Every structure is written in structure tokens, then in C-alpha cells.
Amino acid sequence: MAAPLSVEVEFGGGAELLFDGVKKHQVTLPGQEEPWDIRNLLVWIKKNLLKERPELFIQGDSVRPGILVLINDADWELLVSTSGNSPPSTAPLAALRAS
């Protein structure tokens, strides 16, 4: 079982308006059977943080085109493409954290 994971989620460029105008959220993701990945994080964000107009943030099981997702100030799609063969939305978050 994956242990709880503390992360800071930050929204900018107008996306914070979908989250009651709050840019930074310090959250602790609960422990679960599988490791946390971007797809699971997006589902959690949609259920727990997103306050309005989910269609402006989520499309299918990822973010809408045009929304840049950064992990430690690096594009998440580039991080995953250089670290392994996992599709970006299924790469474990713990593997993407800075060492």
C-alpha cells in the first residue's frame, strides 16, 4: 500500500479562478493500494479542490489541451518521456519528485 503523500499544488494563469481564487494548496493525498500518479491526482483534484466548471480544467482523464502541468518546474510530459516508457498520466508521482 502506498503511504500518504504530501504535495503542493499550484494554479496560475487564470486556472486558480476554478479553485475559489486560491493559487497554492498544500494537500496530503491519502494512502491507497496503488502508487499515486497524475491520473489519480487529477481525479482527486477534481473531487476535492475544483469548485466550478470542470470542463475548463479536465478533458477525459487528463488536463485540457493548453494547460501546462509542471512538476518541480519541469513539464511533466518531458519528465516522463526521459525517465521511462510510462505514459505521462500513469507515471508514479513519487518517481517524479526531486531527489
UniProtKB/TrEMBL annotation:
Transmembrane segments: none annotated. C-terminal thiocarboxylation occurs in 2 steps, it is first acyl-adenylated (-COAMP) via the hesA/moeB/thiF part of MOCS3, then thiocarboxylated (-COSH) via the rhodanese domain of MOCS3. One of its GO terms (cellular component) is cytosol. CDD domains: Ubl_Urm1. It is found in: Cytoplasm. Pathway: tRNA modification; 5-methoxycarbonylmethyl-2-thiouridine-tRNA biosynthesis. The modification 1-thioglycine is found at residue 84. SUPFAM superfamilies: MoaD/ThiS. Keywords: Cytoplasm, Isopeptide bond, tRNA processing, Ubl conjugation pathway. GO terms for biological process: protein urmylation; tRNA thio-modification; tRNA wobble uridine modification. There is a cross-link at residue 84 (Glycyl lysine isopeptide (Gly-Lys) (interchain with K-? in acceptor proteins)). Pfam families: Urm1. Component of a complex at least composed of URM1, CTU2/NCS2 and CTU1/ATPBD3. Belongs to the URM1 family. Acts as a sulfur carrier required for 2-thiolation of mcm(5)S(2)U at tRNA wobble positions of cytosolic tRNA(Lys), tRNA(Glu) and tRNA(Gln). Serves as sulfur donor in tRNA 2-thiolation reaction by being thiocarboxylated (-COSH) at its C-terminus by MOCS3. The sulfur is then transferred to tRNA to form 2-thiolation of mcm(5)S(2)U. Also acts as a ubiquitin-like protein (UBL) that is covalently conjugated via an isopeptide bond to lysine residues of target proteins such as MOCS3, ATPBD3, CTU2, USP15 and CAS. This is Ubiquitin-related modifier 1. It comes from Physeter macrocephalus (Sperm whale). The lineage of its organism: Eukaryota, Metazoa, Chordata, Craniata, Vertebrata.
